[in-house]
Records
---
Amino acid sequence: MKLSFVIPAFNEQDFIGPCLESVMRELAAVECEAEVIVVNNASTDDTRERALAVPGVKVVDEPRKGIVRARQAGYVAARGELIANIDSDTRLPEGWIKTVLREFERDPDLAALSGPLIYYDMSRIGRLMVRSFYAVGYLVYLVMHHVLHAGAMIQGGNFIVRRDVLDKIGGYDTTIEFYGEDTDVARRVSREGRVKWTFRLPIYSSARRMKGEGLVTVGLRYAINYVWVAVRGRPFTKDYKDIRPE
C-alpha cells in the first residue's frame, strides 16, 4: 500500500523542518512506497522554501487559508491508498509507520486509524492533565459511539484514512474552519467502515495552543465541539486563533 503524507503548513518555518526530518527517518526504516506532500497554506514566511529543501518532498500551494482546505488540497494531490494526516508541528515517534501499515494490512475493513498527541514541550503536570483528558474523552466516545450510535473518535494531526473511503464521503468538509474537523471526518468515515482509536499510535506535538490559550480552556473547547459535531453535525465554535512564534 502506498502511503501519502499530507502536512498542512501556515507560517511553519520553525516547525516544518523537524517534522519532515522525522517523517524521512521513519520512511528510511521501512519498505514502503510513499510520498510526502506539504500544503503551503497561504504562508508569508519561508515555509515553502524550507519544505522544498528536503529531498523528496512535494509542495502544493493552497492560497485559501484554513487547515481543512489544506487537507483537502493535499488529498486531491495525493496518489496513495492511505492518506496520513499529520500537522507541521508534529514529529513521528519510532515505529509509527510500521504500526500504521500493520493495522491496515491485517484489517481490510479498517477505514481510518488514529491515536493521541504527546506534547513534547509541555511540563510533566501538563502531560498528566492531558492524559486525564484523553481518558475522559475516550469514555465519552464509548458512550457516544456504542450507546447513542453517534460518530467515532479521531485526533486531528494524527490520523490515517483510506483513499477510497475519502472518495466515497466526498473528501473533507471545507466549510469547517478548525474546531470539530476531526470529529466530522470520524462521523462520516464511520458510516463507510471501521474507525479505530488506539493509544499505541501516539505522535509528538507542540503544546503551543495550550500554552497560548490555557490547557483547561482548550480542552473544554475541544470537548464541546466533539459532542456538538457528533450529535448535531456542525461545530459549536466557529472562530479560532492562530498560535505562531513571534
---
Amino acid sequence: MEGEALRIGAAPFRAAMEESAVLRALLYRYALFFQAQVTMTAACNARHAIEQRLARWLLIAHDRAGVDEFPMTHEFISMMLGVRRPGVTVAAGALQRAGLVRYSRGRMDVTDRLGLEAASCECYHVVRWEFARLLGTDSGPPPG
C-alpha cells in the first residue's frame, strides 16, 4: 500500500534496543503478536472458505489503510490468500453483490464494514483482540 515509512540502520536499531527497555518490550510484544497473526493466518487458510478469508484480509487492509478506498489488486490478494486469481475474482464478486465492497482495476472500497465483519471468519476478531492485548489498544472483550 502506498504511504510513508521510516527507516533505521541495523546498528542504530540494536543500540536503541539495548538502551531502551520500553522499546525492547514493545518490540518483543509486537514480535509475539506477529507470530500469533502468522499462525492464525495459516490455520485460517487451511480451514475457512475463500470468501471468509477475503473478508478477513480486506478488514486487515482497511484497518491499516485508515480509509475506505485503497489500492488492492486481485493478483496481490491471490498471493496473500494462497489461491488462484480467478478464485479471488469470484469471492470479490460475491462480496460486491452483497454490497460489502466495490472494486475496480486495482482499487477496493469497503462500503459496509459491519457486513464485511459478519462475512469474515472469527480469525479477524481473534487477531485484532490479540493485537489489542499485546500492544495496549482497546478492542473490546476477547472473542468467543
---
Amino acid sequence: MSAAGPADGAADGELAPAEAVRRAAVRIAALAQDGLAYSVGDPARDYDTARYRQLQDVSVQLLAAVSGADEDALRTDLGGDTGYATPKVDVRVGVLDAAERFLLLRERSDGRWSLPGGWVDPGDRPGEAAAREALEETGYPVEPVKLVAVWERDVRGKQPPLPVAVFHLFFLGRVVGEPVAPQDLETLEVGWFGLDELPELSGSRVVRSELERLLAHHRDPALPTEWD
C-alpha cells in the first residue's frame, strides 16, 4: 500500500469476532457465486450446483446473524450479481474552492452529507462516471484532474457493512463551468464546507480521514496515488 496506509478499520488480525465472521461470509458468498458461474447448466455438475447454492444460504445466514439484516433482503442483494464475483466500484470526487472548502451534497437517502459520486455503470470510464455524478448530484460541471486513492470499503471502516466487497476510487476535480440545478432525485441540498465546519457525514460513503487525504493532495499535487 502507499506510505499513508489505511486510516480506518483494523488489520485482519485485530478484527472483532463479528466483523471477522462477516468478512468470511462475504468471501463464502463470492466463492459460491464463482462456483455457480461455472457449474449451472452443466448436468454433470448438478451435485456441485446444489452445494454452491447451499453455501450461498450459509453465507446469508451468517451475514444476517452478525448484522441483524433480513435474510430475504440479503438473499436478493447477493442474487443480483452473476458470473465471477468481483468487487463493486464506487467513484467519489473531491472539489475544493479557493478557501479549501469541499463541495458536498446532502443525500436524500439518509439526510447526511457526502462527496458527489456513486456506482460505476458498465461501459463507464471511472473519470467520466465521477464527472457525471458530480453534475447530476450538485449541478456543477466538474473535470477530474487526479486519481488520489483506491481504497477498500471495509479497510476504511465504512458503516453499515455491506454483503459485497467495494473499491472506492477517489478523484480530485475542478469546476469547469457555471452550475445548474442538480437533479433532485438523490440530492436535498448542496453546500461548501471546510474541514473545521463539516456537517454530519454519510458514513457509508465518505469518512473524515478520506477528506483529509483529499485536502493533502489538493495542497500538494505531487503526492503519489494511495491504495490499500
---
Amino acid sequence: MAWLVAAQEWIYGTINGYLSAFASNEDWSALLSVMPLGIGFGAIHALTPGHSKTLLASYLVGSPLAYLRGLAVSSVLAATHVGMAVVIALFAAELLTRTLVGAGRAPTVEDISRGLLVLIGIWFVVRAVRGSSGHTHGEREGVAVGVIAGLIPCPLTLFVMVLALSRGVPEAGLAFALAMMIGVGLTLGVVALLAVAGRSALTAAMKKFGTSISVVSRTLDALAGSLLIVFGFRELLL
C-alpha cells in the first residue's frame, strides 16, 4: 500500500508539471507524447481504494455474465466513473467538498450511488429467496450496475480537470481524462475477468458436489446481494 501512496503523490506532481508546461506553451505534441503515461496513471490510480472494484467483483460473482459482458460492465463503470468527474468539474463544481480531508469528492452524488447499490443488493437477495432468475435481463442489469457504481467520481480526474480549468487549458484536462479512463478501464477489466473466472470455478465446484444449477444461481445471487448491501451501507455510514 505504501508504494501506491507514493505512486499517487508522484502522479499528482507529474500531472501538475505537465499541465503547467502546456499552459505556458500549448505544445500539443508534448502533451500527446505523455498520453501513454496518462493511461499508466489511470491504471495505477485504479488500484487505490475508492474505484468500486469490490462492488464490481461482488456483482459479477452473482451474475451469469460471460467474460466479454463482464468486460462491458467494467468499461461502463470506468467511463461513468471518469465521465462523472469531468461533468462535475465543468458544470457542477459546487457539488465538490472543499475541506482538506474531502477535497475532490462529491458526497451527494456518492451517497446516491451507494444508496442505489444497496437497493440492487436487496433486489438480488429477494430474487434469491423467491427463486426467480431474472437472468434474461443480465446484460441490461449489468450496464445499470456499471453506471450506478460509476457515479462516484474519480478523484484524480477531478484534480486534473480542476487544475486544467484553473490554468485555462480545459482541452488538456479532457485529453488526460480520456487517457485515464482507458487506464482505469484496464484495471477494472482485470478485476472483472478475475471475478467471472472465480464465479465459474465456484459454480463448477458446487455442481461437482451435486448442487443443481438453480441452487447455485440462487446462492450466488444471495451472496452478491449481501455483499452489495454490506459495502453500500458501510460507505454510507463512514
